[in-house]
Amino acid sequence: MRKFPVAREAWTYVAILMLPAVAAYLFFIPGFIVILLAIAGVIFFFRNPRRVVPQQPGLIVSPADGKVIEVAKVTEDQFLNGPALKISIFLNIFNVHINRMPIAGEIGWVRYFPGKHLPAFNEEASRVNERNYVAIDGECKVLVTQIAGLVARRVVCDVDKGRQLKRGQIFGLIKFGSCTEVYVPADVEVLVSKGETVKGGETVLGRLKM
């Protein structure tokens, strides 16, 4: 689990901006100020705030920050292989873009698909956009989809098949505006509704029926 308040992906962008920042400082102070603001924006976007993860058994927490844009009954045929509940979370550019484990468990598989970059809230986005599926086998089976959006141009996933992770542990991020979907068993008691704001690793999306 990352222990720093800024995700490591930020430092590539900061390093790229440092050279023009030095040049601007020497020759064009207004440009230097603009670049400093850009660096601050990058650090803000890649921030990694501490989260208090609920520890009670049977809980499924949000894999991302953002707004719930859909709670729907679906058929999931990749991992759950049957009736499921899909909870879609839209992340704007001001949200924390770190992705966290909704449950503790083993990574069953990871599958990446290149694709388009429609707005993440578009109904077609989950089928045609660049996306990454993470299958988790724990107290139940959960499938998380990282979906790149209009501005987001890269999905980052730091886990591989067979790895064991804790609930709330970081497994990746999506850059610059996106959508995260989570598929859970159909009999899960859903505790959020459309329009609610959630926090990754903290907000409880649902509870297993024990």
Automatic annotation (TrEMBL):
Location of Pyruvic acid (Ser) modifications: S178
Source lineage: Bacteria, Bacillati, Bacillota, Clostridia, Neomoorellales
Organism in which the protein naturally occurs: Metallumcola ferriviriculae
EC number: 4.1.1.65
Pfam families, per the entry: PS_Dcarbxylase
Designated name of the protein: Phosphatidylserine decarboxylase proenzyme
Subunit structure, interactors included: Heterodimer of a large membrane-associated beta subunit and a small pyruvoyl-containing alpha subunit.
Membrane topology: Peripheral membrane protein
Site (Cleavage (non-hydrolytic)): G177, S178
Cofactor: pyruvate
Chain segments annotated as coiled-coil in the UniProt record: none
Active-site residues annotated for this sequence: S178
Keyword tags: Cell membrane, Decarboxylase, Lipid biosynthesis, Lipid metabolism, Lyase, Membrane, Phospholipid biosynthesis, Phospholipid metabolism, Pyruvate, Transmembrane, Transmembrane helix, Zymogen
Co-factor note (free text): Binds 1 pyruvoyl group covalently per subunit.
GO molecular function, one term: phosphatidylserine decarboxylase activity
Swiss-Prot/TrEMBL catalytic activity: a 1,2-diacyl-sn-glycero-3-phospho-L-serine + H(+) = a 1,2-diacyl-sn-glycero-3-phosphoethanolamine + CO2
GO cellular component: plasma membrane
Membrane-crossing segments per the record: 13-46
Broad class of where this protein is predominantly found: membrane
Annotated metabolic or biological route of this protein: Phospholipid metabolism; phosphatidylethanolamine biosynthesis; phosphatidylethanolamine from CDP-diacylglycerol: step 2/2
Gene Ontology biological process: phosphatidylethanolamine biosynthetic process
EC top class named in words: lyase
Keyword Membrane tagged: yes
Family assignment from sequence similarity: Belongs to the phosphatidylserine decarboxylase family. PSD-A subfamily.
